[in-house]
Amino acid sequence: MKSEAKDQLIQKLLSRKEELIELCSNLLKINSENPEGDSTEITQFIDEYLKEAGLETKIYEAAPKRFNLISEIKGEGNKRMILCGHTDTVPAGDRSKWSFDPFSGEVKDGYLLGRGASDMKGGVAGIVFAMAFLKKEGISLPGNLTLALVPDEECGDIYGVPWLLKNNHLSADGALIAEPASPLNPTIGQKGSCCFKVTVYGKPGHGSLAPFAGRSAIVDCMRAIKEVQTVTDLEIKIPEDVLPLIDLSNEYIRGSGMKGYDKVLKKITCNVGTIKGGTSSNVVADKCEVQFDCRLPFGTTQEEVYDYVKTKLNQLGIDYSIERFGFRSNANYTPAEDPICKSVVDNISYVKNDHGYGVLQWACSDARHFREYNIPVLQYGPAETETIHGFDERVKVQDVVDCALVYVLAALDFLQA
């Protein structure tokens, strides 16, 4: 699109930004915590909003109370793009630690407040509004634009994007996920993930005789944890083709003031997430379970990490079992030169009047599923990063508005290219 046409569209959208802010506020008022994973209310609300804008919708219940919503604007050409987001949030947790009601949807001091504001109801509001805006304004699209809202990203990631792709409800030439990102830096790649639970078995005995009686599963588990954590010390040979992207991403990390974090893109990280063991203080523990979350850089795989962990545990001479769970993926990315990346980054630069560029993310996301189906994808959404999954989650109103502008302009540019 030419600059003059973009500027006209921007002014039209800005004239209706209060509608966008109200939409985001209303989404924040709806409790869509996962677990429990009930997306009924939020799906119904968005469904009604889209229908009022003149859009048709399709709703798929992939599991009880887990609803996927799809809406499409058909254009003149055959090129296809997806705008994607998840409607579930992590739980609000201890509400006494919030300085405001996490489901108030309050707008205060330039921020939208509430659970999911940054992850990712600000982004969901932007892509939903973008679809409604294009429909209401009667803007002719040069291709087909699909909105996909999924209920299951925060816990398990089974009944959302992978379910839609597996059941042939989604296909496209490019996709944008409205996940939180830096204002100038969409994430065009993610590390892999390998989550597993180690259960260590001991021999019970009277606590007054430990360590001379029985064998403590907890003590053995402590040894196991120490060995598993050595996975971070492994030297990984990073493929040559991704080194420039990693170097660029590390420049971004250092420039953002995140000291020490520039190591994570070349290392396997290992988080000891939960531990549960024993029955009583006066009983030698016969069982102990610990859950690990490892994130994998380019240059290694889930199987390699899993095999390394088992080798280390076997050397300890302990009685244990190991079981995988949760997110599973190897590191993956979409080249910055891909048309979907260029369309989004170019319009970030245009809207922000500053230089935007894509970076790698040290976590993982729904993006990997699109790439498994050969759909190029990147992530860009409004966020106050330090509040994500924490108390007092919030997002800047201006960032929500700017992202909505990028979604509209990027869709038009990508579909006509």
Automatic annotation (TrEMBL):
EC number(s) recorded for this UniProt protein: 3.5.1.18
InterPro entries: ArgE/DapE (IPR010182), ArgE/DapE_CS (IPR001261), Bact_exopeptidase_dim_dom (IPR036264), Peptidase_M20 (IPR002933), Peptidase_M20_dimer (IPR011650), Peptidase_M20A (IPR050072)
Keywords: Cobalt, Hydrolase, Metal-binding, Zinc
Peptidase M20 dimerisation domain location: 188-318
Pathways per UniProt: Amino-acid biosynthesis; L-lysine biosynthesis via DAP pathway; LL-2,6-diaminopimelate from (S)-tetrahydrodipicolinate (succinylase route): step 3/3
Gene3D superfamilies referenced in this protein's UniProt entry, alphabetically: 3.30.70.360, Zn peptidases
Keyword Protein biosynthesis assigned: no
Catalytic activity: N-succinyl-(2S,6S)-2,6-diaminopimelate + H2O = (2S,6S)-2,6-diaminopimelate + succinate
Cofactor(s) this protein requires: Co(2+); Zn(2+)
UniProt keyword annotation of Acyltransferase present: no
PROSITE patterns cross-referenced by the UniProt entry: ARGE_DAPE_CPG2_2
Family membership noted in the UniProt record: Belongs to the peptidase M20A family.
Protein name stated in the entry: Probable succinyl-diaminopimelate desuccinylase
Species of the source: Sporolactobacillus kofuensis
